[in-house]
Structures are given as structure tokens and as C-alpha cells.
Amino acid sequence: MNLYPLIRLLLFKLDPEEAHHFTLHNLQLAGRTPTLLSIISAKVEHRLLHRQLFGIDFPNPVGLAAGLDKNGDVIDEMGALGFGFVEVGTITPKPQPGSSRPRLFRLLKDTALINRMGFNNVGAEVAAEKLKRRKSAVIVGVNIGKNKETANEDAVRDYEFCFKTLFDHGHYFVVNVSSPNTPDLRALQGKESLTGILNALQDINQSKANPKPILLKIAPDLTNQQIDDVISVVVQTKIQGIVATNTTVSREGLSYSALEVEKFGAGGLSGTPLAMRSTEVVSYIKSKMAANNASFNIIGSGGVMSVQDATDKFTAGADLIQLYTGLVYEGPQLIKDINMNLLKQAKG
Ligand SMILES: Cc1cc2nc3c(=O)[nH]c(=O)nc-3n(C[C@H](O)[C@H](O)[C@H](O)COP(=O)(O)O)c2cc1C
Hints:
Number of helices: 13
Low-confidence stretches: none
Radius of gyration: 19 Å
CATH architecture: Alpha-Beta Barrel
Bound molecules: flavin mononucleotide
Helix content: 40-55%
Mean pLDDT: 95
Structural class: alpha/beta
Number of strands: 13
Oligomer: single chain
Largest sheet: 8 strands, parallel, barrel
Number of domains: 1
Strand content: 15-25%
CATH topology: TIM Barrel
CATH superfamily: Aldolase class I
């Protein structure tokens, strides 16, 4: 039985960030009572759902997007809910509080969120301890970023520090240069900065017996020319893929008045209004990949709110998908519905 519509009634009475903490706290409690967790679980297990990508066996292609479990507090619980993989972070070298509150808003009419969290997290060293303590074998991606006060010229050191500190604790890593909430971060998507950061991480990889897959998370607000540059850097630095996309700074197509939109303030928009653009980016990358004889993987993220949205992402070329806002609005049943549909398709 899908209890989420009832749970959502309660959650949506709370301030969005309070609802977030309430949910994480209760998930942790539920995690200690396996019968309780099994009631809310939306796990679908089948060999036909497995995906083999960059040397990792993903039990299903539906993952939790970065930002919900910033510090790796509910990895096991998210795995038990049914996600095929859990991306934690963004984690920065030093702990930081993030932006001042309020910094998370629900746009109910558009089934969307706006956030300007600003990489609030416990920092790489504490996060490494938390990641170490997980008990299950769920696939973990570690999303890394730079501290707010680190200048872009020095950003490479932040990414190196995070990669080294967290290296042993993640199955794959995501370089986040696309959050709109850290001033100038997105400028690191430029060819030169990007090449510097990714080569530095690949150098660390070279010194390891078992290098870790690295992916790059990009903004949906890049132009085609900028995406072309990103693709050439991905190919040249031989990283494993792209997460497309992060939240958007666009406010196009919202059902709110200009004044209301302005009141929400700055931040990244996620959910339904982002779906089409991020799918378009996946599709564009896929077409360029074919044209360039390149082969890397794409994780599709942005506005997966329904089975159809998931199908659109896979059709556009995503190998795996992730959700955040869809989980807030639809609950874990969405993971199950997507996987059941994939299974139905796979069985013909
Ligand atoms: C509250 C919130 C916080 C987020 N924090 C991060 C983050 O720290 N790092 C990151 O790479 N993406 C972050 N994201 C972006 C999501 O990972 C995802 O890419 C984006 O929300 C689009 O997917 P969705 O429409 O399913 O939410 C955040 C999103 C939200 C809503």
C-alpha cells in the first residue's frame, strides 16, 4: 500500500527544510526497525534491472540524486527503500553552514522546488567517517565540491582534497561544478578550469591500484557550444561520464506571478519545470557522443516525477537516472513504479 500521500499531507504542513530533517530523522529510526522499513520499501529486485557501468554492478538504474543525503546519514535506508544507488554530497573539504534560511521552497503549483542551500555539509573528514560506518552494500556515489571561500584559481586543491579523503568510501565520484548556489562555481565548467580539475583527479587515480570512476555534473543552463566543450574535456580527460543535469537558474514557464517568483529569490529550480530542458541536454550529449565516436555514460537527473519522465530520460540516452524532487512529491512508490515499468519492458 502506498502510504506516501498521507505522509506528504503531514510533511507539507512543515517548513520545507524542517520536513527534510524530520524525514531523515524518521528514516534513521525506521532503519533500526527492519519491519517498519519493509512497509515503506519500494524495492524491486530482478536480474533484468541490473546495469553494468564503469565496472560497477548497479542493481537497478534509479538512484537518489545528490543533495538530499548531503552527509551520508541515510545511505543504508535509501538503499532499503529501493534506490539502485545513492549519491551523497555535495561534500566540501571543510564543513560549512550553507546559506541563511529560509533557503528551500516548495512551488506546489509546478511540482517544483527552489533551493539555495549553498553546500551545507559536515566536511570531507567527518563525511568519510560516516561513509565508513554504513552497513549495506548499496552503491554509493560521492559528489564533491569546493568551499565557498576558496577562490576558483585554488578550486582544484579542494577537489583533490575531497577525492583523496573520500577515495576509499565511494564507488564512483561526481565533480560538481554546476550548483548555482556557490558564487562563480559554474565558471569552473569552462574548458581550462575543467581540464585542470579532472586531470588532477585522474593523476590521483593513476597512483591507485583501483582507480575510481569519475563523472562530471553539469548545469542545464549551458549553451550547446559550452556542452561541446564539456564533451571534449570529458573525452580528453578520459572520465567515465556526465550527470545531466543540476538545477536551473531559469524561471521560465512557472505558474507563479513575477512578484511571487521574485519572492522565492535566488537558487536552483528542480522538478517538473526542469524536466524538458535536462532531457534535451541528455539527448544533445548522446547525439554528440555518437558523432564523435565517444563512449562515456550519462546519468540523467532533472524533473523525473513520473514513469513517463523516466522513460523520456532513458529514451534520450541516459544509462541511469536520479531523482530528488520526485521523491519529495511522489514518495518511494515512484522508484517502484519506474522499476516495474522497466521490468515490464525488458520482459517484452
Ligand atoms: C534541496 C536540494 C539540494 C540539492 N543539493 C545538491 C548538491 O549538494 N549537489 C548537487 O550536485 N546537486 C544538488 N541538488 C540537485 C539534485 O541533485 C538534482 O540534480 C536536481 O534537483 C534535479 O533533479 P530533480 O528535479 O529530480 O530534483 C539539490 C537539489 C535540491 C532540490
